Amino acid sequence: MSLSDAVAAVMFAGVLFYSVFGGADFGSGFWDLTAGDTERGGRRRRLIDHAIGPVWEANHVWLIFVLVFLWTAFPSAYASLIRTLAIPFWLAGFGIVLRGASFVFRKFAGTVEWARVAGVLFAGSSIITPFFLGTIAGGIASGRVPASGTGAVWASWLNPTSLLGGVLAVLVCTFLAGVFLARDAASLGADDLAEELRRRSLVVGGLTGAVALGGIVPLAVDAEQLVDGLTGRAAVFVATSALTGSATLVLLAKGRLNEARMTAAAAVASIVVGWGVAQYPYLLVDEVTIASGAAAPVVLQGLLIAAAVAAVLVVPPLIWLLILADRNVVGLEEAPVR
Fold this sequence. Notes:
By secondary structure, the protein is an all-alpha fold. The chain contains 15 helices and two strands. Helix 1 (3-33) packs across helix 8 (160-187) and helix 11 (224-231) crosses helix 13 (257-279).
């Protein structure tokens, strides 16, 4: 493995972790939005606060990690991405900021009305942000980002592949969050809430599978190289994602929520890895390869050293944080909700 490939692999690991942990975090917005009014939806919103409150900031560390690696290790590709896909990048960034602020401010709102406003902003930004991140992925995968200069500012993300990527990102995040929240509700003894989320997650999971299957048609026309990669060297990862996704639906139907959480995460991770393998060796499809877009070797070496240090100093505390959050047994009724 070359130095540039090693750096790209470490960077893509950040994409993978963000897809799973950040995805489940974003998906909670849909379940918050559809919880109902203050009285009927209070318990579900308390569950969401309980589930993501300790970890939501940590989940987004992976995005910062990926962006820093991208602009440092592959500066020309980063410049092209930011210029061509400026609109979805700005909208996704705005959504992340709005989401974090509204999530915090809802807890300290002076009135019920302001708490509702903050709640709507939190839920809405939780949905639009993964959509725009998905359109960015679609623009890259369909080869619409040029090696230099600025590509089509609108068509680069308003195209069949990008729109499919945005819709799938929202559905996958919603499904992942639903499975995680159902398991959390069961672990807290809220069996009725767990059952409600289990049933609805089954519906979302079926819809996600149908959209993914139907998306083959526009992809075959709009992103031929991506489809060739997905059905070629990345086929094993696509098959793994399909199998683990199907297993998740079966486990949900049987009420085995602990196992369903594992297979749901595996399904998301598998398709993300499949995308990376299908696109390799390109950073920007048909334009920039990992080797041609890499910075000087000394820069790449420094990034790998920094990543190794972070793996020792940062990753273990993150894992411990997730373990502590998972072991929290605070009851749903103990957390006040306006």
